[in-house]
Amino acid sequence: MEMKLRAKDDSIVRVKELLEHYAAKQKLMETAKNVLAELESVIASLSSAYMRKLENTPVLDSALLKLGIMKTLDSPVSNYEILVQELMKELSTMRDVEITTYAGELLAARVRLEQMKIAEGKRVAALGRALEQLDESKLNLKKAIDAGVSLSSAINTYQVQISKRQAELEGAHETEQIACATLASLQDELCSIRAKVLSAQAGEVKAIESRRKLPADINKMALSADEAKATSKMARELASKARLEMEQAKAGLSTALSRIQAAEKEAEAARASEAMALAGLKALSGSEGEDGKVSISIPFEEYSALYDAGHEAVKVSDKKVGVTLIELKEAAANEAEGQDKLSIALKELEELQKALEAAQKKADDSQAAKLSIESELRKWRADHDHWRKTGSNPSSVNTSATQSPRFLNGKTSHTKAFSHSFQGKTVAGIDPSLAEFLTLKVPISEQVLPHSFHGKPATGLSPSLDLSAIKVPSLEKEAGPTSRLDVVKTSKPKKLSLFARVVSMMVRKKKKPVN
């Protein structure tokens, strides 16, 4: 489009130049015509001047003067004739010279006129050629405009085709993204299936080991449960004894508190009696000091006896209080000891209960693992029987499509279309690394399969499992002792999985030429 616009601009500029050149040629033609008219006027003026010069020449005047002089002088006839002849000769020579000069000038003017006519003809021819070029440029401009219109229509058609191709490429890119997503999901599914197979193998080995060890474990658990029950009984007895001791200690504590309260009351009574005695003595001594006439006297022995009795009562009460405090401390210590024994017994009982629960859980887990392995074996056996009877594995695509979580976002229809379109076809042009990845085999233990599987080809049991690595007893007898993971080659062709079909579809799409 830019080239067309540039060509159009160039043609317009060229037309303008040709028009300017034509105008210049027109001006030159006008100037040439003016020059020709001037030359013609000059020639006419020259011819008239020549005639006038011939008529009014000084030679004739001199000749006439000479003739007049001769006539006036009356010279002889011969002299006159000689003079006339000389004058005629001079006149003829002058006329010849002037005629030749004027003829040369006229020829030169005619030559210049012819040259100007030739130049004018050339100019006219150049102008004609310029007009022809102008017509050709107009035709070229029309052709360029028509070509620009056709080119714009072609550009529009090409843009429509490009938009269509872009839409097709976007659709192909979307399908490629879907295929990549399905490929990634299938790879994740294959990894998850391998991990599940490995975990199933590990669980099966653990289940076999646990099944072997299950009776001894059950006996040990039973013994430990009996021991736990016995220890729990002992702990309960100890707890009951501790509770009885705590109750007895609480009763002793209450009696000791009552004794302490009684001793405190007795001490308070003794202190009150002592205070009263001291107050009486003070009153007696004061009354004796105030009134020397009246006096009450108490013997010293009685006073000392009363004083000793008061002190002994205080000491007895203090001893009783100390004894009760000691008994209270012993009861508190006994109560704390009983509480500690009770907590220890409860902890031992909880630990024994936890151990019993753990043993029961292990037994339940081993039983559940055993049941799950048996159900998986029954399922694999049913799939194998179905494949052996029908010769196909219809559950491979469905199981692989439903196990992956990426198929839940609206893309299952594409994968089903891919699986139906590439079912039963061979894979061509796959990279060797992809082929090695597709033919990876997952080793499975012999004890995972039932006895009816031995000696039979194990392809088609699961959509993503390759059970060709199963131990066959008949081949072992012929080949000697081998490992548990010997590979048995089967003669039947293997059916392609969904992953292989998707990869083959991607390879064929890349090889397909774009229209």
Automatic annotation (TrEMBL):
Residues 390-409 have a biased composition (Polar residues). GO terms for biological process: chloroplast accumulation movement; chloroplast avoidance movement. Keywords: Coiled coil. Transmembrane segments: none annotated. The keyword Coiled coil applies. It comes from the Eukaryota. Pfam families: WEMBL (PF05701). Residues 386-409 are annotated as: Disordered. GO terms for cellular component: cytosol. This is WEB family protein.
